[in-house]
Structures are given as structure tokens and as C-alpha cells.
Amino acid sequence: MDKRNAATTDTEPPLINQSRGSGSLDGIADRPGRTPLVQRVYHILLTKISRGDYLADEKLPGEHELASTLLVSRPIIREALKLLRDEGLIYSRQGAGSFVKKLAEDTRNIGYSPVETIADIQRCYELRMSIEPDHAYYAALRWNEPALAKIAAALELMRDAVQLFLHRDDADYNFHYAISQATNNHFYVLSMQSLRDHISIGMKFHGVSLAGPEAMLADVFAEHQLIFDAIRRREAEAARDIMHRHLKRSRDRVFEGRILDLSL
User: Fold this and answer.
1) Residue 137: CA count within 13 A, CB half-sphere
2) Are 220 and 210 in contact (CB under 8 A)?
3) Averaged pLDDT of the chain
4) Which SS3 state, helix, strand or coil, does residue 59 take?
5) At a CB cut-off of 8 Å and minimum separation 6, what does 183 contact?
6) Whether the predicted model's global pTM rises above the 0.85 cut
7) CA distance 245 to 223
């Protein structure tokens, strides 16, 4: 399959570093405050706050304790806490540490019921078709270079798998999750985190539907490429439409075009 590289301009960074370890995307991903370790710690703490593990005005564990628990350095902890402060989720008291900011009662993240039936997979697709086109829309308007690099990195993993005639549902999820992160809206991010298991089940079924025909794998990758290209070019409306079309096609492949009647 042809490797289609995006044109390099001041506002449109290259799609993917073809020679691993030496391209511009590696440098972007390593910038302070946006490294994978910082992002991982940030999302761990964000999840704990959102589900109520730390209550309003409760003090977070100290940097040393967090570093020991999460097996990272204290500078990584400090950068992750800075991201949470910048988003207004925690605040600091001089000499006392970091505390959870009080939020409205209804802002706490709630879990989704587990996928138990084929109908639940369809319901999950319906939800994704409602929210993920807007993820693509706002990602196109708001991305910065590190956020775009994360989407591109997931796309590269998908390309590598397609060249081996495989479907990687983990890379597929990471692609969609990275788009939610590029929206700079933690409610979108939390929704994708809560739906991870549900989405992954649908993606596994989708992968099964692609088994055999090599052209179908290439077509699915091309759909993701088009989403990325629209986001990279900041074509928000196009990104929204392409994402919706991609999810609809994915659902139709899983159900072979036969949608279940979910009427009450």
C-alpha cells in the first residue's frame, strides 16, 4: 500500500516519521509537559479525581508518594500536576501541597453499563456516532503539535499492522482517543476513557469482519488517514463529516448492513 505523506508546511507538520527515532515527531513528543509518562500520570490522576477517589478540597498525596506509587520521577509528577492546575481541576496552597478543586455535583464521571449483547455494541456505535464527529471537529480547531503527533503515532501503528495484513484494535482505539485529547476538553477525554472497554469490544468485532480481504484493511486505514488529514488541515466540518461516515461504515461492516431494531 502506498505511503501517503502529508506535505510539510509551517502549519502542517509531517504526517508520520517514516524513519523511527530521528524525525520531527519524536522531538515533539519529548517536549516538557507532554511526554508519554507525563500524560500517563495526568490521566491516572484525572481518572481518580473524576470518579471521586479524591474529594473536593482533599489534599492529593505528596510528590514523593505519588512518584513512588506510580514509579516515575518527581519532575514527571510536577508536570502532570501542572497540567491539572492549568485545567482548573486542582489548586495549590503554598507549603501545603495540591488540593482537588470543588466541582458541581453532577460533573463527577459515571460509568457505563458493560457490553452484554450484540445490541449493546450497536448502542455503543450510536453513542460514538453522536460524540466522536464533534471530537474530530474540535480537534481540527484546537490541536497543537504534541496532540497531532499522538494521533499520527497511532496512525503509524495502524499502517504497520495493515502492511502485515492485521487489524490492531489497540492502535485503532488510541487513534480515536488521541483525537479526543486534541479537543482540549476533558469531558470528551473522560467519556472515551469510560467507554474504552465498550469500544474495544466493537473494534474486535470490526477486526473479525475485516479478516481475509486485504483490500478492506487498506480501505479502513484510508478512512483513518482521511480523518487525520482533515484534522491536520484544520478543516473542522470535513473532519466531522468524515468521522461520522467512518463510524457508520464500521458499524455496517460489523452488522453486515443489517441494523437491529431497538424500538421499545
Assistant:
1) 11
2) yes
3) 80
4) strand
5) 134, 135, 138, 139, 142, 189
6) no
7) 9
